[in-house]
Write a structure and sequence with these properties.
The chain is built from three helices and eight strands, in the order E-E-H-E-E-E-H-E-H-E-E. An eight-stranded mixed beta sheet has the order 1-2-3-4-5-6-8-7, sandwiched between helices. The chain starts with a strand and ends with a strand.
Amino acid sequence: MPERAGTRRGAVEVVAAERGDERLEALLVEAVDELLRRYPTGSRDEYHLAPGTRFLLGLLDGEPAGCIAQADADPAEFAGGVDMKRVFVREAARGRGVARRLVGAFEDLARERGARRVRLETGTAQPEAVALYTALGYERIPPFGQWADSPLCLCFGKEL
């Protein structure tokens, strides 16, 4: 499922990845490290991903630059929807279209799998993420998930 898009300084390619892929694993560690820097009261255990989670890897000029995860939502709680997780782009690759390409490929994959809606959790210490999701048509929704009671949690959703 390679997809390419030109950016100011290179091409972004989005490919499927699986746990165990060294490129993906390194990005997932970096993503949690950054979350723990932004939310120092958290713990690494809070950021586990459920079995069956699907991953996309963003490559910039062939090098791993970002990732995104798609998790099935509980149908009783969020019928017809999927959860977006672990959207992350390495600092050196930010501002080059990687996150937008990852989210677009995520939405395409969700549609292919029959999803009609996407939801996600982010936080108040991630203004770049909030700006990205808002620019891509995501709207604030009531809090959900393990951080639903946290004043730092912001939730967004989008109809596909």
